[in-house]
Amino acid sequence: MNACGLIVEYNPFHNGHYYHLEQSKQATNSDCMIAVMSGNFLQRGEPAITDKFHRARVAVQQGVDIVVELPFIYAVQNSDLFARGAVSILAALGVKSLCFGSESGQINDFINAYKLFQNKQERYKLELKKQLSYGISFPEASRQAYQAIGLTQGSIDLSQPNNILGFSYLKSIYQNNFSIRPMTIKRTKNNYHDKEIKNEIASATSIRKELVAYNKVTTLAKEALPSKMIEGLDEYKQYSGLWHHWEHYFNILQYRVLTMTEAELRQVHGVDEGLEYRLKRTASKATSFDSWMNDVKTKRYTWTRLQRMFAHILVNTKKESIVSLTEEKLPYIRLLAMTDKGQAYLNQIKKSMEIPIITGLKNGRHQISAIESQASYAYYSVVSPIQRRKLYKQELNPPYILNKRS
Amino acid sequence: MNACGLIVEYNPFHNGHYYHLEQSKQATNSDCMIAVMSGNFLQRGEPAITDKFHRARVAVQQGVDIVVELPFIYAVQNSDLFARGAVSILAALGVKSLCFGSESGQINDFINAYKLFQNKQERYKLELKKQLSYGISFPEASRQAYQAIGLTQGSIDLSQPNNILGFSYLKSIYQNNFSIRPMTIKRTKNNYHDKEIKNEIASATSIRKELVAYNKVTTLAKEALPSKMIEGLDEYKQYSGLWHHWEHYFNILQYRVLTMTEAELRQVHGVDEGLEYRLKRTASKATSFDSWMNDVKTKRYTWTRLQRMFAHILVNTKKESIVSLTEEKLPYIRLLAMTDKGQAYLNQIKKSMEIPIITGLKNGRHQISAIESQASYAYYSVVSPIQRRKLYKQELNPPYILNKRS
């Protein structure tokens, strides 16, 4: 079988994802679609609206053959680390191609940009450092540095979120000499951050806004979601009592920051450049997550970066562990859901794989499992005690298998 | 003025406390009654039913002249450390006597017991170590060790909770050569742990049980409480939405334990002898504080000791800080409430005092203030965000002053 890789969050799985899936299948001529999906916390530093098990299940119901988890230590990171984790997993799973959505839509633009970047990496790094020293945010500094080495002019726009991610995927493929062919599909209609649903191919952000604001699947949201996802959303809320978002975690986060010393906060991944003082100073006045974020925010930090920092405070991930773990080889790949076809593909490649596939989390296996477990408990901490216990048990259960032949 | 010291929790202030206060005043012939009161967390390792400010206010309304706070690092400790903190504060405030309630009621029995203990301290320590090695709880091991040196036979019963505390007060007075005269009043009628209110002089435990079970001041509870305390309880609940007890903190505690590594748990004061593994193992199954406690409990640990451990996990107090801070001299005494007479007394002794009196918590003053602040935030973490902010502000405000003359 010929496998194609996708790097996704499915938060939630919507028509745009379905469109991307079908396009990728055709463009790469693949008969097995493998998605590396962020777990309960996402790259933009947010808790996912429903847990990873429910999102993975809908993904295979919609046509993905295998869903594996991107570990927390890679998922809640800047684009380069996120890409490094996701691309290595796809490489280990033997995919022939990786197909990503981008604002550009032209893979040659990415390839040319990479060649240019490769030759001028040193200049880029120097320029980036200089820009950061002015106190501006990383994405803005990075954009300036790309511009300084001649990128963005007539090439891909590296200030667009999906172009940034795509470029990180390419860097990861080429720098590791993976035999994966990168391909890209133009993201259509709505932009990444659009907050209002405009049509049947809406962005995940706009759908989430709609769901959270009305606390139900509105008619407008229904137009953007496949029926299985609507069922999945309703079922999850009925079971857990809520769709997760940051405001649910405000109490715990505020409690944490106010019962930690500055020195303890500084040990948490993402708490850099004196943010520990800013956090303590603003915490006691905050009465909601949103108001707190607005108090912490300055032009130096993007909203996304601060959200990621809060996710690491919540999960209690230390700088020390993140650095050592992301430098090691992945100890395992966690399977979340698959179709029978996906299962056949895994059986086919199993023997030649260097990294074992696991089907359930076992404590004490590896420090990465311990962090996965912390992330999962932190995520479910806002659910009632009895449901929390049941939801956590999914971590220990075998993955969901959709039998298409029967 | 002639001052007498009391060591109390007032959780809540009830008729028994009033009786003890009046008896102490008469017995010691004092015209200024000074109470050292535990803050928001108590010696038995529980959150107080209402915050320290509300309890201190009622205490002065009922006849106490000065209420000062026993810092968290001394309050949530075994009887010896609890006594060391409380007695040094009373000594610094120049009290002539200390009057405590006990099951014995005979001060000479305590004094004789201390003399015997002083001569056989080494034997006591050896015996205690031996008994503890059998895996029994500290109070039981201590009772056996006292028996081995000849205490408890015809003397005070050192397995009774108030006798144990009283004996710790005496040790602290004599070992530090404080010129404080110890006195004791027999605790009448109800025993310390009785859980059912029996009459107008009921125990704090039985009153709390009653209040929490019915979530209101029942007719039975009313009989045991002065009217000012009833008002205080009602007012606090109206303002904060609740009377604090451990079940309110279950979510946060479980979240904490499940997002900490064993090594991190081991750094917390009270997490000893492999309790970190027991905590982690039992945490994921727990659905309430009570069920969790029952799962952690063995004959080696008393309920009280485990509750204290949970309080330190909640407040995030590390072994390291506790050890260094309790070895240092107290940096300040925190005033919570006073009458005009109390104020006059403080003005009289101020110049000769070695430790400054502070009237509000200021951040960054001392590591003890940082821990007080953590304890306070942890305590209010179960209140709604806006009320929490208002309640915490009391930490920064001047103390309540009751002007009796006007």
Automatic annotation (TrEMBL), chains A, B:
Subcellular location as annotated: Cytoplasm
InterPro entries linked to this entry: Rossmann-like_a/b/a_fold, tRNA(Met)_cyd_acetate_ligase
Pfam families: HIGH_NTase1
Entry keyword set: ATP-binding, Cytoplasm, Ligase, Nucleotide-binding, RNA-binding, Transferase, tRNA processing, tRNA-binding
TM stretches of this protein: none
Top EC group: ligase
GO molecular-function terms, A-Z: ATP binding; ligase activity, forming carbon-nitrogen bonds; transferase activity; tRNA binding
Entry EC number(s): 6.3.4.-
One example of a Gene Ontology biological process annotation: tRNA modification
Highest taxon of source: Bacteria
Location (main, coarse): cytoplasm
Function: Catalyzes the formation of N(4)-acetylcytidine (ac(4)C) at the wobble position of elongator tRNA(Met), using acetate and ATP as substrates. First activates an acetate ion to form acetyladenylate (Ac-AMP) and then transfers the acetyl group to tRNA to form ac(4)C34.
Protein name: tRNA(Met) cytidine acetate ligase
